[in-house]
Amino acid sequence: MKKISDRIVAGKASPDDVDTLETVANQIEGKTICAFGEACSWPTQSFIKKFRDELKGDCKPELAGRVVNGETTVAAAGLSA
Amino acid sequence: MRALMRVQVLAAGSDGLSSPPLVKFFTNGACRGSRRPHLSGMSSDAVQYLPGKEPHARERRLIFRNVDRSGYDPSIDCYLKDGGYEQLKVALKMEKTAIINEVKVAGLRGRGGAGFPTGVKWGFIPPTNTKPVYLICNADESEPGTFKDRYIIHQDPHQLVEGMAIACFAVGAKLAYIYIREEFPEGALILEKAIAEAHAKGFLGKNIQGTGFDCEIFVHRGAGAYICGEETGLIESLEGKRPYPRIKPPYFPAALGLYMCPTIVNNVESLCHVKHIIQMGGAEYAKLGTPNNTGTRILCVSGDVQKPGYYEVEVGKVTMGEVIDVLCGGLKPGRKLKAIIPGGSSAKVLRADEIFKLKDGRELSITDIPTDFDTMAACGSMAGSGGVIIMDDSRSMSWVINNLNNFYAHESCGQCTPAAKEVSG
User: Fold this and answer.
1) Is residue A79 within 8 angstroms of chain B, CB to CB?
2) What is the predicted ipTM?
3) Which domains are delineated in chain B?
4) Distance from CA of B408 to the nearest CA of A (A)
5) How many helices (H) and strands (E) does chain B have?
6) Which chain A residues are Cβ-neighbours of B406 within 8 angstroms?
7) Structure pTM?
8) Among candidates B195, B169, B22, B158, which has minimal Cα distance to B81?
9) Where in the sequence is the domain holding A34, given as residue range(s)?
């Protein structure tokens, strides 16, 4: 989650990274021993649910599937390199 | 820690920024006492506050009665002049079950985040228990956006000591710990001094006030981990181990806690409320606030408002809009409300233009939401620890989410793979 949101803030993410971030958050909630899982996934889930367009607006569609800083951004369906 | 500091920058007006007046307060000279004893009435009208620090008319100061009070210092003499430790004397003459019952009748819900009824939690100690019982005060106030316990500890430590002594008596604990976070070094010193003073006056130690009840309180300083605020993680840390939260069940340390003995873990503010419940009586206390959301609670408002700070209000009597416009003097000029995190950084965010449809048919806009536990939960968030973070249209949501994720990635304890790998990865 940190790496993906770091990428979004740096303007080096593809719009599908936002959906991946949400998927990752959903995979944490309810699967931990203590409430930390909920504590860390709830902000991410709610921010993406309510501000998806703004978050995607900070992303760059042309970066889909490209390698940025040694990491591959998430490729949009049908656009993968 | 870097991540934590960055979160506190978002929470403008949080701990760090408010500390200069606090220092000033402690060098404020001797106690001049109060004009009215603590026993009669709870009106804060009789109390003079420091200039510029007066509570708002909509506030109801119970716990924060002595915070920013003119001429008040954290010594026991000042506290005794104000009618301190009278409730402990009253409680020691009561039946233990009667005290627990008063807390249940009062409907006190834990102020640490989950909002679990405190009296019910106390009742979870097995009736057939023969092991020692421990009480732990959770002063590991590490939720970003929350800064209420700090002021209680720094300015009114004896209120906490008295509340803990009453709670110890009620649950049958002879040994209590205050687990204070590493970032409150001065608070730990103040508490240790307060405990020593209470010892000297016979409010702690052996045979308290000739009743045969023994109670010791120790201060334990944490080492800076967010996860130590989780109660089983806290217990592990107190036992000297790595603070990995324990596997549930048992769901409550009241069954198996510190050293595998029944343990009650309560927030600082919750324990302070116990003193006021004894003072007012459970039924009278329950008239404060709204049904099922009783008493007062401290809202720690930070972010993009004119006057961020702490506001103690009756639970559910103030709406989110009133918090922003009335208590905090509105948003900064020319800005529009964008989002609110209503209960510490872990609470789900509320968007400014949302309409919340509740199950009982009510439709609320963000400014109509009362700041109580139940409505906040019905709106899909939580009242949590009371840390209200206001964000206006100058904030980038990408930046906010990144800030929070940096914090959580840093603070994951690493025990569970999903949280450890996916937050930081």
Assistant:
1) no
2) 0.87
3) 2-288 (3.40.50.11540), 290-406 (3.10.20.600)
4) 6
5) 16, 13
6) 2, 5-6
7) 0.86
8) B158
9) 2-71
